[in-house]
Amino acid sequence: MLSNEKWFGASAGFYSVTIDQSARFNDDDNAYLNDTSPQSGNRRTFTISFWFKRSTLGTYQSLYSAGTTGNYFTLVEITPDDTLWFYDYQSSLQWVLKTNQVFRDTTNWYHLVFSVDTTQATDSNRVKIYLNGSQITSFSTATYPSQNYETFANSNITNNNISIGAFSNNLSATNYRFDGYLAEYNLIDGTALTPSSFGESKNGTWIPKSLSSLTYGTNGFRLTFADSSNLGDDTSGNGNDFATNGLASTDVVLDSPTNNFCTINANRESTLSSGSVTLSEGNLQSVDGGTTYGRHWSGTFGMTTGKWYWEVLAHTLGGSHGQIGLGNDVERANTSVANGAIAVYYGNDGKRNPRAVNSGTTSYGDSYTNGDIIGIAFDADNESVTFYKNNSSQGAVGSVLVQSTGAYFPSVGDAQNATTYKYIANFGQDSSFAGNKTAQGNTDDNGVGDFYYSPPSGYLALCSSNLPDTTIAPNQEEQGSDFNQVVFYDGNSSNSHQITGVGFKPDMVHIKVRNQSASHYNIDSRRGIGTGDSFKALAFNSSIGQYTSENDQLRSLDTDGFTLDDNTDNTWYVNRSSDTYNSWNWRCGSDTPTKTFKVKVVADSTDYGHGTGSNKYQFLKSDGTTGFGTNGIDLDLTEGGTYIFDWSDSSAQSHPIRFSLTNDGTHSSGTSAGSEYTTGVVKDDSSYLTTITLPTTASGGVANLFYYCQNHSGMGAEINTNPITQKGETNFDGTILSVTQVNNDIGMSIATYTAPSGTFYFGHGLSQAPEFFMVKSLGGTGNWIGYHKARTPSVPNTKGLYINGASLPQTNSNWIQEVSATRIGITTNQLTGTGDYLLYAWHSVDGYCKVGQYEGNNSSSDNAFVYTGFLPNIVWIKNVDSGHDWVIRDLKHSGYYTDGRGNSVNLGSSHSLNNPHTGGTSFMMDFLSNGFKIRGNNSDIGSSHTFMYIAWASDQTFKFSNAR
Fold it and tell me: Phi/psi at 830 (nearest 5 deg)?
């Protein structure tokens, strides 16, 4: 997520143009822009475009207003329920659009376009609203203006005025003040434009574009806020300048849509015990409630690696227990060390408070007082922090930051009752500390930021341009939607019903009928897709074994989805004409996989069914030195794959590997007596490598393939060439063989194995230890058994986990013996005995997948915030303290991809139940640009318990994201 590498150039290269500053509107300062003498323009046709970043939620906030005295105005506002309203009022309401969309992301930037042309014949064409390039079409109320209706925009009627950041009809109404940041604010007089005039979509992220070709018309204006001495300067060439009210030159800051800066996270529940924290100045200033101790805030950026610097002004310290420092996720919500709270604070009494060890305060450095600036230099790689008082180092602290995974967050608070503490943070966007100091303009090593003191060498500002690139991101070839996607569809009971829109050929498909009580349906390309008995389905919510259907519920996995059959077998609800369906899709592996097998030769005259030669090939494990232990192994390979056989071990260099369509190569004593298979084979004997690329069934395929030694008989065995509808390669990392289908770029593995009795180990194929997996018997009844690192961090573990049920297994189950970078250890009798099993496994990948836990607080509105470092697309959640079902939430249910309905998700499904999709306010959660926020208090997602989760990303990583 965060790195010390210098990524500013890479970030700038992503954007066709950059926006370099914004204006901060603090509602407490009565801040707004006002034009009291607008020119006469086109009141029927115009466009408003601007970027904004919210600070305060739950209040009336005006983003644009034009009107005259009395109740005559045109208004764009966000209401206390955080929806957007665009309406016109002339003694009574004339027309209004009220979005279902809520705007509750305070960590990033939105772009809005209002396109108005009341001359249109069709009413819905007269007013259009676009968010981040997509039209909003879902409204709780939608009444449109009559044809040729004249708004108050571009009007020079007596006493008419235009305001930005306030309600112009009643400038004394403080609850209409906007609180947040505005950037690149434009009004086009006389033309109704689309978002493409102001921005463009780049791999799922909406970014600004050059506005040099725009024609602004008579009353049009462009506010870039580039001139801090003249914030209302119109740079369109029209000279339609605005007067400023409650805004100072120090309100021009570096935070912008193309370089988003860390702020205090208004969506993070702020209390460790009780009390409140009031935020202001663009969420850079905090004042505690002054009634109880334990009030803390944390930043919007999580730090997992790299070196980072920020500053905090100790403005007003009401006592001797001020705290400035950093902490982890759990620290934000719970003081319990047992729950993993890790933090370190530098107190104004000169002591430090290491919450991780809960050992009280210890002497550290100088005390500090009102007006002092505390610098924090955090080295996440070494889990060490150095505090500075007015640029004087107080020494490094590293012994208490012992977290091995997860992110740390900037944090400030106090530990004293009935006192007030006021802090102002600077993460590199404003070294004036909201006008309380004289800005110094120091930058980090990347030339980024505005700091009061120069950051230590190598330490960077907390902003998006300094974030590292991840392998899956908008500025890379592949994004999150290339590996996971949610698709709704209607059944039609017809043969060969094609479901498209997935965007890739899925390897795992999970289907749930939305309006019926029916099982979850799951298939994957490891076990195979096809006709008759080769069709295999499982139910996530059931312990029943693998179901083999003679009726092809799902006929094929296609390049853009999958094809269903007529659903004559109602065991599975997947294509009934009366039903609607949700499909969750994952891509794992490739149709053209590559893998290297290293071998050595051992003395073994056993006949494993392929000859009685005195030597055998033995395959090495992934460490490259340890042999599997059993020789003469039949291999599983995938058609279309390329496989390198490395026989460079000194024991194998006189035993070149070759291929044949007959057992043992049909040769005798080293002399070829039959045909060697050479199609797609490259022999590099000087490097002791033999490579084979297998044809696919579509191009003829290959059956009865064998590997053998060119010089000696009885050394090789058979190769099972799996069709691409049944992918996987043999894995040797366990005590038993497994067949794994893996994509290490996204941290996902699908594997099968045959379990013996007793304890055994099998390879999972991932490049690091899985953090979440589930195992299911294929041959008979048996529960889905799961492992989650947050719940069972050590193995052998004391608690297993049911995927298909609400309850947890009994304690002391000890069925997982090992979870390592190469293999998983299992005790069979804790499952269902010997036989064939299936594994799904994942680990966290920066920018794509996050496995973690959070603490609920039972609030019905301000529950847990979970940082993922990306905008999630799919989230699975499980209450691990009591018997509650798995919950599935996804971005598609919020309406983001279809109609812009809203951010909150109050409809979803459960792994462990077969009920129809359920909802309600207690299930509410927001999908945000850096994670998700629980808004409800249902015991499945937000009661006062511990919850574990796994989340997969949308196209947007936090480095390149829009507010949600």
Answer: -85, -5
